[in-house]
Design goal:
Blueprint lengths: L1 E7 L5 H14 L4 E6 L18 H8 L5 H4 L1 E3 L3 E5 L10 H14 L2 H5 L3 E7 L5 H4 L9 E6 L3 H18 L5 E8 L6 H11 L4 E5 L3 H8 L4 H4 L4 H17 L3
Parallel strand pairs: 1-5, 1-6, 2-4, 2-5, 6-7, 7-8
Antiparallel strand pairs: 3-4
Helix pairs in contact: 1-11
This protein binds adenosine-5'-diphosphate and magnesium ion.
Protein backbone atom coordinates (compact mmCIF):
# COMPACT_ATOMS: atom_id res chain seq x y z
CA UNK A 1 0.00 0.00 0.00
CA UNK A 2 1.47 3.32 -1.11
CA UNK A 3 0.40 6.10 1.24
CA UNK A 4 0.69 9.63 -0.06
CA UNK A 5 -0.32 12.97 1.45
CA UNK A 6 -0.95 15.98 -0.75
CA UNK A 7 -0.68 19.22 1.22
CA UNK A 8 -1.05 22.87 0.28
CA UNK A 9 -2.69 26.14 1.07
CA UNK A 10 -6.49 26.36 0.85
CA UNK A 11 -7.69 27.06 -2.68
CA UNK A 12 -4.37 26.24 -4.34
CA UNK A 13 -5.75 23.23 -6.22
CA UNK A 14 -5.07 20.25 -3.91
CA UNK A 15 -8.42 18.57 -4.41
CA UNK A 16 -8.45 19.18 -8.16
CA UNK A 17 -4.96 17.76 -8.42
CA UNK A 18 -5.58 14.86 -6.03
CA UNK A 19 -8.84 13.74 -7.59
CA UNK A 20 -7.37 13.82 -11.09
CA UNK A 21 -4.42 11.87 -9.73
CA UNK A 22 -6.81 9.31 -8.22
CA UNK A 23 -8.71 9.03 -11.50
CA UNK A 24 -5.50 8.66 -13.52
CA UNK A 25 -4.11 6.00 -11.17
CA UNK A 26 -7.43 4.18 -11.28
CA UNK A 27 -7.35 4.23 -15.09
CA UNK A 28 -3.86 2.75 -14.81
CA UNK A 29 -5.36 -0.23 -12.99
CA UNK A 30 -4.83 0.69 -9.35
CA UNK A 31 -7.32 0.73 -6.52
CA UNK A 32 -7.17 4.19 -4.97
CA UNK A 33 -8.64 5.50 -1.74
CA UNK A 34 -8.84 9.30 -1.52
CA UNK A 35 -9.34 10.76 1.93
CA UNK A 36 -10.32 14.41 2.13
CA UNK A 37 -8.81 16.06 5.21
CA UNK A 38 -10.22 19.53 4.90
CA UNK A 39 -13.28 20.82 6.77
CA UNK A 40 -14.55 21.98 3.34
CA UNK A 41 -15.27 18.27 2.70
CA UNK A 42 -15.24 18.70 -1.08
CA UNK A 43 -12.10 16.75 -1.88
CA UNK A 44 -13.80 13.92 -3.71
CA UNK A 45 -16.76 15.78 -5.22
CA UNK A 46 -15.51 15.38 -8.80
CA UNK A 47 -15.08 11.63 -8.33
CA UNK A 48 -18.72 11.22 -7.32
CA UNK A 49 -20.33 13.59 -9.88
CA UNK A 50 -20.86 16.30 -7.31
CA UNK A 51 -22.73 14.11 -4.82
CA UNK A 52 -21.84 15.32 -1.36
CA UNK A 53 -20.79 12.11 0.34
CA UNK A 54 -21.50 11.86 4.07
CA UNK A 55 -18.52 12.93 6.16
CA UNK A 56 -17.03 10.63 8.76
CA UNK A 57 -17.67 13.22 11.48
CA UNK A 58 -21.33 13.58 10.55
CA UNK A 59 -21.78 9.82 10.43
CA UNK A 60 -20.14 9.44 13.84
CA UNK A 61 -22.53 12.06 15.20
CA UNK A 62 -25.53 10.40 13.60
CA UNK A 63 -24.79 6.71 14.11
CA UNK A 64 -22.25 6.51 16.90
CA UNK A 65 -20.90 2.98 17.27
CA UNK A 66 -23.38 1.62 14.71
CA UNK A 67 -21.43 3.21 11.92
CA UNK A 68 -20.47 0.85 9.09
CA UNK A 69 -17.64 1.09 6.60
CA UNK A 70 -20.03 1.61 3.70
CA UNK A 71 -21.42 4.69 5.48
CA UNK A 72 -18.09 6.49 5.17
CA UNK A 73 -16.19 4.85 2.30
CA UNK A 74 -18.06 5.49 -0.93
CA UNK A 75 -17.28 4.25 -4.43
CA UNK A 76 -16.23 6.90 -6.94
CA UNK A 77 -15.02 7.09 -10.54
CA UNK A 78 -13.44 3.86 -11.82
CA UNK A 79 -11.75 1.94 -9.05
CA UNK A 80 -11.67 4.79 -6.54
CA UNK A 81 -12.95 4.90 -2.98
CA UNK A 82 -13.88 8.22 -1.44
CA UNK A 83 -13.79 9.40 2.17
CA UNK A 84 -14.36 12.89 3.60
CA UNK A 85 -13.23 13.45 7.18
CA UNK A 86 -15.45 16.49 7.52
CA UNK A 87 -15.31 19.28 10.03
CA UNK A 88 -17.02 20.58 13.14
CA UNK A 89 -19.76 23.18 13.23
CA UNK A 90 -18.03 26.53 12.74
CA UNK A 91 -17.38 28.13 16.10
CA UNK A 92 -17.64 24.84 17.95
CA UNK A 93 -14.80 22.34 18.11
CA UNK A 94 -11.55 22.18 16.24
CA UNK A 95 -11.16 21.25 12.58
CA UNK A 96 -8.06 19.21 13.26
CA UNK A 97 -9.91 17.11 15.83
CA UNK A 98 -12.27 16.07 13.06
CA UNK A 99 -9.42 14.56 11.12
CA UNK A 100 -8.18 12.68 14.18
CA UNK A 101 -11.66 11.30 14.87
CA UNK A 102 -12.04 10.26 11.23
CA UNK A 103 -8.67 8.49 11.18
CA UNK A 104 -9.51 6.65 14.38
CA UNK A 105 -12.84 5.55 12.96
CA UNK A 106 -11.28 4.29 9.71
CA UNK A 107 -8.83 2.25 11.76
CA UNK A 108 -11.43 0.94 14.17
CA UNK A 109 -13.45 -0.31 11.18
CA UNK A 110 -10.31 -1.74 9.52
CA UNK A 111 -10.91 0.27 6.36
CA UNK A 112 -7.46 -0.37 4.89
CA UNK A 113 -7.51 -4.13 5.54
CA UNK A 114 -11.06 -4.41 4.22
CA UNK A 115 -10.60 -2.50 0.96
CA UNK A 116 -6.89 -3.17 0.42
CA UNK A 117 -6.24 -0.09 -1.73
CA UNK A 118 -3.02 -0.02 -3.75
CA UNK A 119 -2.73 3.70 -3.13
CA UNK A 120 -4.12 5.92 -0.37
CA UNK A 121 -4.15 9.65 -1.09
CA UNK A 122 -4.71 12.08 1.77
CA UNK A 123 -5.81 15.52 0.55
CA UNK A 124 -4.86 17.79 3.41
CA UNK A 125 -5.36 21.47 4.11
CA UNK A 126 -1.91 22.80 4.90
CA UNK A 127 -2.45 26.36 6.08
CA UNK A 128 -1.68 25.31 9.63
CA UNK A 129 0.25 22.11 10.26
CA UNK A 130 -0.85 21.38 13.80
CA UNK A 131 -3.00 18.78 15.55
CA UNK A 132 -5.14 16.81 13.14
CA UNK A 133 -3.66 18.53 10.11
CA UNK A 134 -0.29 17.05 11.04
CA UNK A 135 -1.79 13.56 11.52
CA UNK A 136 -1.14 12.31 7.98
CA UNK A 137 2.60 13.01 8.38
CA UNK A 138 2.77 11.43 11.83
CA UNK A 139 2.04 8.01 13.18
CA UNK A 140 2.69 6.16 9.93
CA UNK A 141 -0.32 7.34 7.93
CA UNK A 142 1.43 8.76 4.88
CA UNK A 143 4.91 7.72 3.80
CA UNK A 144 5.26 10.29 1.05
CA UNK A 145 4.30 13.96 1.03
CA UNK A 146 3.84 16.23 -1.96
CA UNK A 147 2.97 19.89 -1.70
CA UNK A 148 0.87 21.74 -4.25
CA UNK A 149 1.95 25.36 -4.63
CA UNK A 150 1.95 28.22 -7.06
CA UNK A 151 4.45 31.05 -7.19
CA UNK A 152 2.28 33.13 -4.89
CA UNK A 153 3.90 34.01 -1.61
CA UNK A 154 1.22 32.64 0.69
CA UNK A 155 1.18 29.24 -0.96
CA UNK A 156 4.99 29.05 -0.78
CA UNK A 157 4.80 30.08 2.86
CA UNK A 158 2.45 27.16 3.53
CA UNK A 159 4.74 24.84 1.55
CA UNK A 160 7.70 25.92 3.62
CA UNK A 161 5.79 25.29 6.87
CA UNK A 162 4.89 21.79 5.75
CA UNK A 163 8.48 21.13 4.81
CA UNK A 164 9.62 22.30 8.26
CA UNK A 165 7.00 20.16 9.99
CA UNK A 166 8.18 17.06 8.15
CA UNK A 167 11.80 17.84 8.93
CA UNK A 168 11.00 18.18 12.60
CA UNK A 169 9.32 14.76 12.64
CA UNK A 170 11.86 13.34 10.21
CA UNK A 171 14.33 11.82 12.62
CA UNK A 172 11.55 9.73 14.10
CA UNK A 173 11.06 7.98 10.79
CA UNK A 174 7.84 9.51 9.63
CA UNK A 175 6.83 10.69 6.18
CA UNK A 176 9.24 11.88 3.53
CA UNK A 177 8.89 15.21 1.73
CA UNK A 178 8.99 14.16 -1.93
CA UNK A 179 8.64 17.49 -3.68
CA UNK A 180 6.51 20.29 -4.99
CA UNK A 181 3.78 20.17 -7.61
CA UNK A 182 3.71 23.60 -9.18
CA UNK A 183 0.08 24.36 -10.00
CA UNK A 184 0.60 27.39 -12.19
CA UNK A 185 -1.22 30.63 -11.54
CA UNK A 186 0.67 32.25 -14.39
CA UNK A 187 2.20 34.96 -12.23
CA UNK A 188 5.32 36.63 -13.56
CA UNK A 189 8.52 34.63 -13.26
CA UNK A 190 6.60 31.81 -11.57
CA UNK A 191 8.89 28.90 -12.37
CA UNK A 192 11.96 30.80 -11.19
CA UNK A 193 10.30 31.85 -7.96
CA UNK A 194 9.20 28.31 -7.14
CA UNK A 195 12.56 26.82 -8.16
CA UNK A 196 14.28 29.18 -5.76
CA UNK A 197 11.84 28.31 -2.98
CA UNK A 198 12.34 24.60 -3.70
CA UNK A 199 16.07 25.04 -3.30
CA UNK A 200 15.55 26.71 0.07
CA UNK A 201 13.35 23.81 1.14
CA UNK A 202 15.99 21.38 -0.15
CA UNK A 203 13.48 19.79 -2.48
CA UNK A 204 12.46 19.70 -6.16
CA UNK A 205 9.56 20.55 -8.38
CA UNK A 206 8.42 17.12 -9.52
CA UNK A 207 5.95 18.49 -12.08
CA UNK A 208 4.66 21.77 -13.43
CA UNK A 209 0.90 21.72 -13.99
CA UNK A 210 -0.33 24.36 -16.41
CA UNK A 211 -3.32 26.52 -15.59
CA UNK A 212 -6.06 25.31 -17.89
CA UNK A 213 -9.67 26.18 -18.64
CA UNK A 214 -10.25 22.46 -19.17
CA UNK A 215 -10.32 22.14 -15.38
CA UNK A 216 -13.34 24.45 -15.22
CA UNK A 217 -15.07 22.69 -18.12
CA UNK A 218 -14.73 19.35 -16.35
CA UNK A 219 -15.77 20.95 -13.06
CA UNK A 220 -18.90 22.22 -14.79
CA UNK A 221 -19.78 18.57 -15.42
CA UNK A 222 -18.83 17.77 -11.80
CA UNK A 223 -16.10 15.46 -13.04
CA UNK A 224 -12.35 15.24 -13.10
CA UNK A 225 -10.60 16.23 -16.31
CA UNK A 226 -9.58 12.58 -16.64
CA UNK A 227 -13.23 11.53 -16.76
CA UNK A 228 -14.81 14.46 -18.60
CA UNK A 229 -12.07 15.26 -21.14
CA UNK A 230 -9.87 12.18 -21.37
CA UNK A 231 -8.35 13.27 -24.67
CA UNK A 232 -7.51 16.80 -23.57
CA UNK A 233 -4.05 18.26 -23.02
CA UNK A 234 -4.78 18.68 -19.31
CA UNK A 235 -5.80 15.00 -18.94
CA UNK A 236 -2.46 14.10 -20.46
CA UNK A 237 -0.74 16.39 -17.94
CA UNK A 238 -2.56 14.70 -15.04
CA UNK A 239 -1.64 11.24 -16.37
CA UNK A 240 1.95 12.45 -16.59
CA UNK A 241 1.72 13.71 -13.00
CA UNK A 242 0.45 10.29 -11.91
CA UNK A 243 3.43 8.68 -13.64
CA UNK A 244 5.87 11.13 -11.99
CA UNK A 245 4.36 10.60 -8.55
CA UNK A 246 4.68 6.83 -8.89
CA UNK A 247 8.27 7.16 -10.11
CA UNK A 248 9.15 9.39 -7.16
CA UNK A 249 7.55 7.17 -4.53
CA UNK A 250 9.31 4.18 -6.09
CA UNK A 251 12.60 6.03 -5.75
CA UNK A 252 13.19 6.70 -9.45
P1 LIG B 1 -8.02 23.23 -2.68
O1 LIG B 1 -8.45 21.82 -2.63
O2 LIG B 1 -6.53 23.40 -2.57
O3 LIG B 1 -8.74 24.12 -1.69
P2 LIG B 1 -9.29 23.20 -5.26
O4 LIG B 1 -8.71 21.96 -5.83
O5 LIG B 1 -10.69 23.13 -4.77
O6 LIG B 1 -8.37 23.81 -4.13
O7 LIG B 1 -9.10 24.31 -6.37
C1 LIG B 1 -9.69 25.58 -6.30
C2 LIG B 1 -10.13 25.97 -7.72
O8 LIG B 1 -8.98 26.20 -8.50
C3 LIG B 1 -10.89 24.85 -8.39
O9 LIG B 1 -12.25 25.08 -8.29
C4 LIG B 1 -10.43 24.88 -9.83
O10 LIG B 1 -11.40 25.49 -10.61
C5 LIG B 1 -9.20 25.76 -9.82
N1 LIG B 1 -8.01 25.06 -10.33
C6 LIG B 1 -7.19 24.22 -9.65
N2 LIG B 1 -6.17 23.82 -10.42
C7 LIG B 1 -6.32 24.40 -11.62
C8 LIG B 1 -5.58 24.40 -12.85
N3 LIG B 1 -4.45 23.71 -13.00
N4 LIG B 1 -6.06 25.12 -13.88
C9 LIG B 1 -7.20 25.84 -13.75
N5 LIG B 1 -7.93 25.90 -12.63
C10 LIG B 1 -7.50 25.20 -11.57
MG1 LIG C 1 -9.77 20.94 -1.35
Amino acid sequence: MIKIAVYGKGGIGKSTTTSNLSAALSDAGLKVMQIGCDPKADSTKNLVIGNQIPTVLDQIKEKGRNIKLEDIVLPGYGNTLCVEAGGPTPGIGCAGRGIIAAFEELERLHAYEEFKPDVVLYDVLGDVVCGGFAMPIRGGYADHVFVVTSGEMMSLYAASNISSAIKSFGSRGYAKFEGLILNSRNIENELNIVQKAALEMETNIIKVMPRSGEVQIAEGEKKTVIEALPDSVMAMEYRDLAKRVMEVVNGK
